[in-house]
Amino acid sequence: MDLLLHLRYFRTVAEEEHFGRAAERLRVAQPSLSQRIQRLERELGVRLLDRGRTGATLTPAGRLVLAEADTLLDAADRLRTLVGRVQGGAAGTLRAAVPPQLGGATVAALLTAYRERSPGGELDLRELDTADQTAELTAGTLDAGIVRHPCPTTGLGFGPQLHQPLGALLADQDPLAAHPEIDVRELDGRELVLFPRAGAPALHDETLTACARHGCTPSAVREVAGIEFTRALILSGTQVVALLPRPAPEPGTTWRPLRANPLTWRTSTAWPAGRDGPAVRLFTEAAHDVLRETAGLVPTAPQRRLFPRPASEFPL
Amino acid sequence: MNTPVRSRITAAFTDAGTTGSLCATDIDTGAAITLGADTPVSTASVHKLCLVATLYREAAAGRIDPTTPLDIPAGGRAPGPTGLAVMRDAARLSLRDLASLAIAVSDNAAADVLWDHLGLDTVNATMKALGLTRTIAVHNQAGLYATMVTDTGRSGPAALVDPAAVARLTVLDPTRTNRSTPRDMAALLAAIWRDEVCEGPWADELRAVLGVQAWSHRLASGFPFDDVHVSGKTGTLPTLRHEAGVVEYPDGGRYAVAVFTRAASTAATLPAADAAIGRAARIAVDALRAGT
After folding, report:
1. Which residue, A34, B107, B258, B276, is the most exposed by fewest CB within 10 angstroms?
2. Are residues A177 and A255 in the same domain?
3. Is the pLDDT of residue A110 over 60?
4. Under a CB-based contact definition with an 8 Å cutoff, are residues A1 and A39 in contact?
5. Residue B30 banded pLDDT, cuts 50, 70, 90
6. Where is the chain membrane-spanning (chain B) (predicted)?
7. φ/ψ (deg, to 5) at A194
8. B262: closest CA among B50, B44, B49, B107?
9. Are residues A285 and A253 in the same domain?
10. pLDDT tens digit string along A48-78?
């Protein structure tokens, strides 16, 4: 049985709540559609729809299966799109990605800068977190990206590293918001909002370690992707603070830089190793300029003297 | 806003199933965070700090040459799980290299060669001269472990995880074994880092030796930062897990920290209890750095 096809038929019946209308939409004969739904019910061993005079309604089991069917069908669609990208690779189109929290102005500037450098060249730009970017760069569905370090490096080439300073996003009435800059130590014991770990696990851990290194151990860490939800959390709590690069201003919350920039995200362009053709090079040049000029990234962080420990087992 | 530092340190110990005491001092300002810092503790291998400090103090005073090589026969070594204690053949090592082994892997055999060469009295006199009057050694490593065999009888290693047998161990009683206090051990380290134990190249070498310890599961685990230098010496006996060391930040901040714990569990492997030493130390050091 073609499970995906049957689930697609089932989803249409569920949406239309009517076999006749669903059959029409799917351009199949109604008896054939009914048979397929019965076959799916036999396969799964549950009744999915109650057939009445006026139409078809979902059983409780049907509602569960519908929710799962959505997930499966979306994943299948994504798979087809990805494969399509690999096969197509539309000539003249560079498939590129930017990480979250880069800022809308930066993305707009990047698109403009690329078009200026590559007249007629198309940039298919998506927002992808670093974990997805490295996976897609390796898989060949992405030509170039802007990633945050540390990230997996096998099979990838990287442009020069830039540093994106982090600051604290606070409620306007938070006493710390009154100061032009904040010592990260003053955030010790607060509840911290940070991007979801799954999006860049090594960076998430490194950011928390750097916090600890500078005297800030949060009482709890909330993993939040969107700026809206982040702001809601900050405004609903008294001890909540988010660590992120300077966001677009919004009433209610205040972003403050951290004294001496102890926390920065290392950022660079990335591409599949050995595949930096002219379009990739134009993108990385444009990205480097935009990151410095629009996003305010800085080329170097102060050099640290390192103390490797005997447990590291190698001399330095 | 924050829970008081001492409550957070106590919670770090409690969460790991241990009780603990601590003394953390800012080596340059003398500011201190303390928790049971004057209660005597059985030092176990932390006492090797006193031994190695004494070697370098004697060297600086010209009474001993730490480059002197010693013959170490294959037999008659103090027992232990590392270093010369597990090696099979005769060796020849200088006093200071024996000190490195005693710190790097808590080598009991190497430590006992030093204990016997320097003498318990010399080490105790050195501590007294430094004002560490509550720091006293009554036996070398072999002597210490011999009391455990006597206390547990013939039951062998199994006795060391048997709560009833562990309760009989005199090495857990600070009045009957090598002992000190968290405050004394932090003071010894502060003195070493302030050049008060010895000066010049000997002082530099002593501090370098105290930085070669291989383990990082206790004090160092609380400071997983590549630009922070952690030196120290652990000490372990059934239910006891200790470490005393120095944490140095690149901004010049340096802190002597002594942490002594006792676990309710008699299990020989308790990673959470090891890590609690680092957690407690970092809470204290962060508080000292914040000036609270």
Report:
1. A34
2. yes
3. yes
4. yes
5. very high
6. none
7. -140, 160
8. B44
9. no
10. 999 888 888 999 999 999 999 988 998 888 8
* Residue-range definition of the domain harbouring residue B259: 5-290
Percent pLDDT > 70 in chain A is: 96
By three-state DSSP, how is residue B204 classified?
helix
| B9 alpha-carbon distance from chain centroid | 20
Tokens at A125, concatenated: 């730009």
CB contact under 8 A, A310 and B213: yes
Contact A266, A138 (CB under 8 A): no
Q: Say whether both A171 and A258 belong to one domain.
A: yes
Q: Phi/psi of residue A265, each to 5°?
A: -100, 120
- For residue B22, the tally of other CB atoms under 10 A from its CB is 28
Contact between residue B110 and residue B101 where contact means Cβ atoms under 8 Å apart? yes
Number of domains in chain B: 1
In whole angstroms, what is the distance from residue B169 CA to residue A113 CA? Answer: 75
How is residue B25 written in tokens? 């001092």
A307/B228 touch (CB, cutoff 8 Å), yes or no: yes
Average pLDDT over residues A212-224: 95
SS3 A156: strand
Find out whether B274 and B241 touch, Cβ atoms under 8 Å: yes
DSSP three-state, residue B52 = helix
Shortest alpha-carbon distance between residue A307 and chain B (Å): 6
A70 and A123 co-located in one domain: no
What one-letter code names the amino acid at A156? L
Give the gap in angstroms from C-alpha B122 to the nearest C-alpha of chain A.
Answer: 30
Q: What is the pTM of this model?
A: 0.80
Residue A307: inside a domain, yes or no?
A: no
Instruction: Count the residues in chain A.
Output: 316
Amino acid symbol at B250: P
Other C-beta atoms lying within 10 Å of the C-beta of residue B244: 30
Structural domains in chain A (count): 3
Give me the domain span that covers residue A145. Answer: 89-162+265-293
Query: Smallest Cα–Cα separation from A57: which of A107, A101, A9, A19?
Result: A19
Q: How far is A308 from chain B (nearest CA, A)?
A: 7
Assign residue B139 the CATH number of its domain. Answer: 3.40.710.10
Q: Which residues pair with A266 in a beta bridge?
A: A149, A163
